[in-house]
Specification:
With 65 residues, this protein is mostly helical. It has a domain of 40 residues. Helices cover 49% and strands 6% of the residues. It is built from 3 helices and 2 strands; from the N terminus they run βααβα. Helix 2 packs parallel to helix 3. It is globular, with a radius of gyration of 11 Å. The mean pLDDT is 92. This is Sulfur relay protein DsrC.
């Protein structure tokens, strides 16, 4: 299980929500099965529907092969 806080803390180079979205997509691609939203991203460009956006990015990254 991937926790959002671990992704954010583990990648200090990520400074925008767009970059976080790509990181979350990569977590889905790398075989993580679940994503836990344990914190709210504190980026200036974080949208109101950030949970939906990150869930979609995680799912897009998941391979169903």
């Amino acid at each position: 299980m991937a926790q959002l806080s671990d992704l954010i803390i583990g990648h200090p180079e990520v400074t925008t929500f767009s970059e976080l979205e790509l990181l979350v997509q990569h977590a889905g691609e790398s075989g993580q099965m679940f994503l836990e939203f344990d914190v709210k991203p504190d980026f200036r460009d974080t949208p109101r529907n950030w949970q939906w956006v990150l869930e979609a990015a995680f799912t897009r990254g998941t391979s169903y092969g």
